[in-house]
Amino acid sequence: MQKITSHSRALVLSLSAVAVLVSGCANMSDGQRSAAIGGGLGALAGAAIGDSTKSTAVGAGLGALGGYIWSTQMAKKKAEMERATAGTGVAVTQTADNQLKLNIPSDISFDTGRANIKSNLQPILDQFAQGLNNQPNTEIRIVGHTDSTGSDAINNPLSVNRAASARDYLVSRGVQARRIQIDGRGAREPIADNYSESGRARNRRIEIFLAERASGQ
């Protein structure tokens, strides 16, 4: 009979814990469910990479840190942004992992080949900035994108510069710079084809994410 190692026992226990967590999530809020399942999956990861109880505990901690909550404040912010962007073409959504996402197309945000913010974007960013200082556990991420016109040597820094412009505007409205992360994906993540002008216009965009962690995370 094959000997059961401590690593195997930890893995079995972690699998059982995840099953219990999932079955017990029915009465939890979306945020609680996300954090609980994240912690359970993290524990499973810890057991998979280590052969000690310590590894499992570390994995659980990392899993829980990956979870965002969808609080009353986040729901309120989503409603505010939907009102502020109505009729503009900006998409305001709640992501699967409980982030608030604004997808802002080029006709609102930036002219072709430029990184300076259009006047149409300013009131949207003004509304976004309002109240964020009362949500200390929120994190902001801004991601810039381009279409495929031009080379990576042009598009990659342009996408970063667009995200940086949006960040700088939010900072000018009182949002702490340390709370904002920026990234640029160039033309690597299109949401439409690049063979038509309408498709390229959709790909030229910035995405702004707002996420909230539970207190103490």
Structural class: alpha+beta
User: Mean of residue pLDDT?
Assistant: 79
β-strand percent reads 5-15%
Helix share, percent: 40-55%
- Structural shape: globular
Spatial gap, N to C terminus? 44 Å
Q: How do the strands line up in the largest sheet?
A: 1-2-5-3-4
The radius of gyration computed from the alpha-carbon positions, rounded to a whole number of angstroms, is: 21 Å
In total, the number of domains comes to: 2
Order of helices and strands: HHHHEEHEHEHE
What descriptors fit this protein?
217 residues, alpha+beta, 60s Ribosomal Protein L30, Chain: A, 2 domains, five-stranded mixed β-sheet, 7 helices, 5 strands, 47% helix, globular
Q: How does this model look, in words?
A:
This protein is of the alpha+beta class. It folds into two domains: 6-65, no CATH class; 72-212, OmpA-like domain (60s Ribosomal Protein L30, Chain: A, 2-Layer Sandwich), CATH 3.30.1330.60. It contains seven helices and five strands, in the order ααααββαβαβαβ. Strand 3, helix 6 and strand 4 form a beta-alpha-beta unit. Helix 1 packs antiparallel against helix 2 (30-49), helix 2 runs antiparallel to helix 3 and helix 4 (72-85) runs antiparallel to helix 5. The radius of gyration is 21 Å and the shape is globular. Residues 10-23 and 29-65 have low confidence and may be disordered.
